[in-house]
Amino acid sequence: MNAQTVPAVGVEAIGMTMRFGGFTALDDVTVKVPAGSFHALLGENGAGKSTLVKCMMGFYTPTSGDMVVNGREAVIASPKDAGALGLGMVYQHFTLVPSLTGEENLVISRENAPAVIDWGKERRDLKSFMERMPFKIPLEQPVSALAAGEKQKLEIVKQLYLGRRFLVLDEPTSVLTPGEAEEMLGLVRGMTRRGELTVLMISHKFHEVTAFADDVSVLRKGKLTGRGRVANLDRRKMAAMMIGDQAIAALDQRAPTPADAVSVLEVNAVKAKDRSGLKSIEIDGLKVKAGEIVGVAGVSGNGQKEFLEVLAGQRAREAGEIRVKNASYEATREQSRKLNVRFIPEEPLRNACAPKMTVAENIAFRTFDLDKDGKPASWISARAIRDYATSLIAQFKVKTASLSSPIQSLSGGNVQRAVLARELSGAVDLLIVSNPCFGLDFAAVAEIRARIMKARNGGAAVLLMSEDLDELLELSDRILVMSDGQLVYETPIAQADLHVIGEHMAGKH
Amino acid sequence: MTDIAAPASAVLSPPRAPLALAWLARRAEGVVIPLGALLAGMALFSVFLLLLGKSPSTFLELMWRGGFGSWFSIQNALLRATPLIFAALCVALPARLGLTVIGGEGAIVLGGVAAAAFGHWLGNAPSVIVLAAMAAAGMVAGGLWIGAVGALRHYRAVNETISSLLMAYIAIALMNHLVEGPLRDPASLNKPSTHPLTEAARVGPIPGMDVHWGLVVALLACVACWLLIEKTRWGFAARVAGGNVRAAQIQGLAVGPLIVGFCALSGALAGLAGMFEVAAVQGSANASLAAGYGYAGILVAFLARQNPLGVVPVAFLLGGIAAAGGLIQRRMGLPDATILVLQGMLFIVVLMSETLYGRFKCFDPDRWKRAP
Ligand SMILES: Nc1ncnc2c1ncn2[C@@H]1O[C@H](COP(=O)(O)OP(=O)(O)OP(=O)(O)O)[C@@H](O)[C@H]1O
Ligand SMILES: [Mg+2]
C-alpha cells in the first residue's frame, strides 16, 4: 500500500478477439502499455474500446487473445483476478456509495475489510496513505457532498488504495469541467512520470490526448487502425485513423431568425424543489422563439437537470406556468404530439430508455400507439416496429448487433444515437436538449450539432442545456446562465464574453 | 456514409438456419431454468422427508397418483388450478409494470363475499343475470382492493408489496366480519356462512367433466392478458413504465392511470377467482375462501416468469400437487402442513433461480448465430 515502493505495472493485450454471436466487436487487437506510460485509446462510438478494456479486466472472456502482465503471461478470468495483479478500472459513472464518507468508501471497498472495523487505526493508516498521494480530497465528508471532480479523484484514489498500479480510465473527464479535468489528468500524469502508475485512458477529446498521453492506439470497427507516439501525431492524423476518409458533417449556415418569429416556449414563474428537496429552482420569463437556439450554461448541479425534469413532466412543479405555442403545457403525450415537442435528456439510458427492452422497441417509444397513417391505434404491430427501427437505424447510423438486442448492450454513443433517431424524426417545433454530445466521438458530435442547427433553421425552437461552453457558443443565438436554480444572466451570442459568462456561472454577481 | 451503415445491415439479416437455433436457445432458458428449479425444490423436499424418516419415492408416487395419474385426479388438479390461474395473473400483470403485488388473497376473499351477497340478493332472477351480477360484483370488489394498492403506490409512494400484504389481512378480517355478522345465514351454526346460493346462482360443470366453467374463463383470461401485454398499446406502455419510469414519463405516458388500471384489472381477476369458488365450489361464502390460493398464485406467477400463458401449465402442476395433498397426508401419516413446506421450499428455490438467467452461455441466442 505504499505508493513509492510499489512500482507501476506494465500490461499487454495480445491478439484480442471478441465476438458477440455473429458480431465481431474486437478483431485481433494488440495493445502494449509499458509500465509507467500514459496510453490513450481512441476510436469512434462502437469501435470496441470499452469491449477491449472489459476483456483486459476480466469482465468479458475474450473469444481469443492473451494477457501479459509485467512481462509474464497472466490468466484473467474475472475482475478479481485483475485486481490481484494490480489492474483496476475507473468507470465513466461513479461507483462510490454517496451516503458514506470517503474514508468509509475506501475501507469497505477493500477485499479483506475486517468484520469489525477499528476506525481509529484505519483513519491513521488512511492519513499516512493520503500524505503520499498527490490528490487532496476531504475524506470526512459524505461522497454526495463532493463535486464531480473530487468524486472522480476519489475513484482513482480508491483504486490506488486497493493497490492497483495499472488503471483503465474509461472517458474519465466527461462528467468534469475543463478545469477539473485538467487538474485530475495532470496529477495522474505526474504519477506515471514518477513510475508509480500506468494508465490506459479511453477518450474522445483530442486535446486531452495531446496534452497528457505518451502513446496512442486507435480502434475502428473492432480493428486496430493505428498507433504511435503522440508527439509524432497531430489531431488530423489521429482523426484520419479513427474514421478514415469519411466526411465530417458540416454545420449549416445560421439562417437569420425572422424578426416576427413567435415565441414557442414560455416559462413563467415556475418553481420546483431541487434534487435535495431543500432548495428550489425558480425560472421566470424564459422565452424561446421559433428558429432560435437558446443555450443555457451553468456548472453541473445548479438546477439544469431539475429544470428539464419539470419541463418533461418528470418532476412536479409547485407554481408557475409553461406555455407552448400559446397553450398551457403539462407534458402529456397528446400535447407533446400535437405541439411537436421533443426531449433529449442527458444520460439517455437512464432517462429515456428502458434498458432491457430491445433497440427496436426503444426506438418505437414515441410512435408505438399510432398506425401507418398516424392515427391512434390500440393494437401494436411488431412488424411495423421493426421496419420503423430498421429505417431509422440506417438513417442515424446506429451500430447494433441486431434489432432485438437489449438497448443496454449498445455502446454509450450508440444509445445516444438511437434516442436522437427517435426524437429527431418527423416535424419538430420545440426541441429541449441536454448535453446531447456527452460521450460521442468527434464525427458524431459534428453530426448531431448539424442536426440541431438544421432543426433550428427549419423553424424549430431549441432550448439547449449544456455544460460545454464551446458547444453553446457554436450553436446558440442567445446564452442564458443558470446558477443556484435561477437564470441569472442573458446575452446575445454576438456580445457573448466568455469571461463574463464564467463569472456568472461561478455565482460571482 | 454507406461505409458505416453497411455492417449494421449485414448483421441485421443473418442466415436463416442458425436463427432457428438462436430462437430455440432464447426460448429454452425460460423453460429449463424453472424446471430445474422445480426439480431442485423436490430434491430439497426429499431430504426433508428423509430426515422425517419417510420415503421420498412413496411421496412421489402418491403425488403422481393423487395429482395426475388418473382422469379423476387430473380433474381434481384442474379444479384447484382454476383459482391459482386467476391469482397468478393478479401477480403477473402488475409485475410487468415493475410492481410486486402479493396480496391477491385479499381480492379473492372480498370477490367471493361480494359475489355471495349479490347471489343471495338476486337469487330468484334468471341465471344469466345473477351470474353476471355476481361476476361483476366480485370483479369490482377485487378491482377496487388491488386498484387501491396501485393508487397508494403511485400517488403516495407506499410500497405495494407491503400494502397489498397488509390489505389482504384487512380483507380477511372484513370477510370474517361480514360472514359472521351482517351477511350471516342464521342457519349456519358450526361454520358461519352466507346464505346458500340458489340453483340459479350456481356455476355448473363443463359437460363431460367435474370441472366447472371457471376453468374456461381462467384460460380465456390468460390469453386476453397475454394479448393485452404483448400486443396492445397499453401493454407496451406498461412495459415501458416497468422498464424505466423516467423514460415513460418523458414520453408523456400516463404512468399513474397505467399503474392503477393494471392493478385494478389484476384485482378484478382475483375477484373472479373468489366468485367461482363461491358459485361453483362452496355454494356460499365462508372462512374457507381464505384457502391460500392467493399466496400459492405468487409461486405460480414466479415459476411462469410472469408470463400469462406460462401460468397455465404451472398452475396445473401446482394444482396437482395440492390435489395429492390429502392422499399423501392420509397414506404417509404426514401433517397437513407438509404440502405447505413443499410449496415454501419450491418458492425459495424458484426465487433463487431468478438470478441464474443470463448465466448460462448455451442460452445466449447470439452464440448460435454463426459469423457470416
Ligand atoms: N454484450 C454485448 N452484446 C452484444 N453486442 C455488444 C455487447 N457489448 C458491446 N457490444 C457491441 O460491440 C460494439 C463495441 O462496443 P463498445 O462498447 O466496445 O464501443 P466503444 O468503443 O466503447 O464505444 P463508445 O465510444 O460509444 O463508448 C458495439 O457495436 C456494441 O453494440
Ligand atoms: Mg464505451
UniProtKB/TrEMBL annotation, chain A:
Question: Which is an annotated Pfam family here?
Answer: ABC_tran
Which SUPFAM superfamilies is this protein grouped with? P-loop containing nucleoside triphosphate hydrolases
Q: Which Gene3D superfamilies match?
A: P-loop containing nucleotide triphosphate hydrolases
Question: Which is an annotated GO molecular function term of this record?
Answer: ATP binding
Q: Where is the ABC transporter domain?
A: 11-246, 264-509
Check the record and name the InterPro entries matching this protein.
Answer: AAA+_ATPase, ABC_carbohydrate_import_ATPase, ABC_transporter-like_ATP-bd, ABC_transporter-like_CS, P-loop_NTPase
The UniProt keywords, alphabetically, are: ATP-binding, Nucleotide-binding
Family membership noted in the UniProt record: Belongs to the ABC transporter superfamily.
Know the name of this protein? ABC transporter ATP-binding protein
From TrEMBL, chain B:
Species the sequence originates in: Hansschlegelia quercus
Presence of the UniProt keyword Cytoplasm in the record: no
GO molecular function, one example?
Answer: transmembrane transporter activity
Q: Specify the protein name.
A: ABC transporter permease
Q: Pfam families attached here?
A: BPD_transp_2 (PF02653)
Record has tRNA processing as a keyword? no
Annotated Gene Ontology cellular components are: plasma membrane
Coarse class of the protein's main subcellular location: membrane
